[in-house]
Amino acid sequence: MTDAVADKHRAADGWLQALLALAAVLAAVLLVYWPTAVGIVTIWYRSETFTHAFLVPPIVGWIIWRRRQEVARIAPAAQPWILVPMLGLCVGWLLGDLTAINSVTQFAFVGLLVLAVPLVLGLRVAWALLFPLAYLFFGVPTGEFLMPLFMDWTADFTVTALRLSGIPVVREGLNFVIPSGNWSVVEACSGIRYLIASVTVGTLYAHLNYQSTLRRIVFVLVAIAVPVVANWLRAYMIVMIGHLSGNTLAVGVDHLIYGWAFFGVVIMIMFLVGGRWAEPELPYRAPAAWTGPGAGAQMSLVAVVLMALAGSIAVASPLAAKRLIEASARSGAVALAPPERLGDNWKLSPGDDLGFKPRFVNPTSEFNAVYARDGARVGLYLAYYRNQTYNSKLVSSDNVMVPSEDTIWGRERSYGALADLAGVSTPLRATDLRRLSDPSAADALRLTGWQVYWVDGTLTANDYLAKAYSAFKQLAGRGDESAVVIVYAAGDTPQHRQTLLRDFLRDNFGAISTLLQTAGAAR
Fold this sequence. Notes:
This protein is α+β, with helices and mostly antiparallel strands. The protein has three domains: about 5-120 and about 295-325, no CATH class; about 145-275, no CATH class; about 340-520. The chain is about 50% helix and about 15% strand. The chain has helices at about 5-30, 35-45, 55-65, 70, 85-100, 100-120, 125-130, 130-135, 145-165, 190-210, 215-245, 255-275, 300-325, 465-475, 495-520; strands at about 170, 175-180, 180-185, 340, 345-350, 365-375, 375-385, 410-420, 425-435, 445-455, 460, 480-490. Strand 4 (about 340) and strand 5 (about 345-350) form a beta hairpin. The longest helix is centred in the middle third of the chain and has 32 residues, at about 215-245. The protein is flat.
């Protein structure tokens, strides 16, 4: 056997060993984080926004297959130091799981799959496969947190365009009235699904059709801007079609059909224009030898096995920590009931709810009650969460003062407020609401609601801080006892309603806090 043939066989043996080790680490990641993987696929299946993500794994596999011959020329060389960032992702997954943040656990899961490649095969192989590995992150179903912002932008553009067209508009938050009827900007109008689909496809298009980094970046930026502007135009045209047709067109299923048809035409034009600057594919150039930290050399079979074992143990480490934290969680029942009387003669008003109830999903316990004093009425809503899961958690995009699709109440504006909570000036989240039974009526009932999170005694109005406090409390062995406190009042002016709420909280928040502390003490 010649030396060349022997070298070829040794290289083949090295790749076989490395691929077996890689398969072992990937299998460990999938086994340990199987619920996270299932959660990702479940969102793909149930959400139209992310249905396209089913194509991401096949696309990644296809690109890797296209490069198989070039990658095979690189000798795999494991990098043990990659275990350090992998452990960091494991910690990130644990924190995300403790606070039930899907995007954190899912990004960590995909990151572990990606880092398994340089861990076992080396940095040169990972660099050669950089695009398909990075493209895997498009499979993480995230981005819907931008929906409220995009809905506001869409409403702003649509109302402005209608007024420039000479059509009078009365706007209340995301709802607006024109002479021919009432319109609302709901989740489907935000354009998020158009944006996510455009960026996913546009990034692949840029990679396959351009060689210049600058051209690729420019095209991706265009793929971000075009669907946003196109969605604004789509919303405006939908309203105009409905208005000009006497509300016989673009008001039912055809509303969505027109939207997707318009989006498809816009994206096709974007690709056709982008194709004018397409560049021919260049011959593959193997990456230069890595000379930085952990350059390493091809490992023996024993070393490869040890590397696979170390990687598997690393990715499994969060489970042990999670079991210890869960052992300290409280398991007793939580039963919240509105007191008959609160401070300074505020009395429970049975059967009265001002026609309003915030939407918080699957709390462990909750109540919604109205208290009255000298003719003034203030609503109090408490929702308590214990042993939170992805379907039952305090901070969630589903938990809102009022959902955008609500047909009874509409959000006029959201802003910050300050209130005296047990002697401490505390920021709160404020929302002005308007009853939608007759949006054009000048005397439509209006409410103002103030909201604050209670996390085992710590108060915050910020979603991210509430999550951070919850993670810290659990790591300290105190469990995930959390609640939302919402007070709301009706009145002629925002100032009047705010005064009622401020007085109510000053008089009663101590009693409310004690009520929550007592509920949290149950085991």
